Amino acid sequence: MREAKGMVITMKKYILPERSIYETAHYDVIIAGSGPAGVCAALSAARSGLKVLLIEKMGCIGGHWTSGMLCLVLDKLGKGGILKEITSKLSDIHAINILNAQEEIFSYDVEAMKVILEEMCMTENIDILLHTRVTEAIYQGRMIQAVVTENNSGTQVFSAEVFIDCTGNGDLGAYAGCSFDSGHPFSGKQQPATLEAIVSGVPPEMNFCLDERTKIKLRELMESVGIQPSYKMPTLFKLPKGNLWCFHVNHQYGTRHDSAWEITKATVEARKEIFDMVKALRRLPSWEKLTLVCTAESIGIREGRRIHGLYSIGREDIACGTRFEDGICTVRFAVDIHSLDATYGGGYENADIHVKPYHIPYRSLVAAEMNNLGMAGRCISGDFYAHASYRVTANCAAMGEALGYAAGLAIKYGIGLHQVDGKEISEYMIKAGYDI
Length: 436
Prior knowledge:
This protein has 436 residues and is of the alpha+beta class. It folds into two domains: 25-184 and 303-431, FAD/NAD(P)-binding domain (3-Layer(bba) Sandwich); 197-295. Helix content is 28%, strand content 23%. It has ten helices and 22 strands. It has helices at 36-47, 81-92, 110-123, 171-175, 212-224, 260-281, 315-320, 384-390, 393-413, 422-431, and strands at 2-4, 7-9, 25-32, 52-55, 72-73, 96-100, 105-108, 127-129, 133-140, 143-151, 154-165, 180-181, 197-200, 235-238, 244-248, 291-295, 306-307, 327-331, 337-338, 348-349, 358-361, 373-375. Strands 3, 4, 8, 9, 10, 11 and 22 form a seven-stranded mixed sheet that branches.
């Protein structure tokens, strides 16, 4: 039942028919989600000789790199492997713009990124299924047997030996009954969502970049034409080609990752805010040609479920710079907690935690309650504060590469992911060029 304007309305109950569906195909590894973590997991697994299915809900692989239009790679310093390959391919076609050479921060051409990722996956004979959602997990005991998907072909069932959750929100883990944490440990609030945009016509004399000084300058310009940005540190940074800039300017507060209604509302509100900002800024001298080129196909969700793993990375680890024998990469990125509500005027904060370079242990990528489920990306096992540091995309790519290789070892030796020697994964990542 639900209430509407003082009335109690009884909702109809529908009984769905039972379904019996033949298996569509069997794979060695199935990866749900093709963002930076998912793509790198797929490539790593395929290079280990595995038959791989990569499932993606959007119309391109790459996740927040592409459909999310982030246009920025953070915390790449000291990371080699597949991420270095991707960067080199982008550089070869002049599709990157170095924003901070010392920290290896760069922007990139989104369309080039799409094509490069697709070509890399096709070269490794990875099966890609776009416009497809994983909607259920079929499991028994501590083993996932198959996933159920929905797309224009209808309902399908795919089985595998190993499954990797790269959905960002931990959807597959949740479908398999795994326990998880979400949001701030006391309030439960999640970091706000942001819809990215690309604009052109920024005045050439405006030397905007990623530092706080230019963010404050952009906010003051907005305020001068009556605009109060929901993100108090609005950001403009240059893209590689043409007079194109990434326009990172909004916060959608109270948007839960597991509410389609809230995500829809946030997307509509963010797009309108961006449109109104561009229109207002055109009133400024030399801003008359500012043009909204496009907004992202998917809004950026910063926080979802954090699936419980064999180890949970905590605030003590990131503050003390904990190093692990099974470390798969080194994280240097600061704690970056975007304002949990509109009352905080700073845009983001670090909760007074000063990060020392720390390791992500392989164990945090392995589900505690499923023997053949791994997680890569922001849904790995960690607390609210650690997540605010390791969630950026270069780290997600490293997690995916490590887990794809681990899947190969698990299948080779006929063991679960929880039985794979994490030291061997760490050694592999070092050989691949990671500074651990």
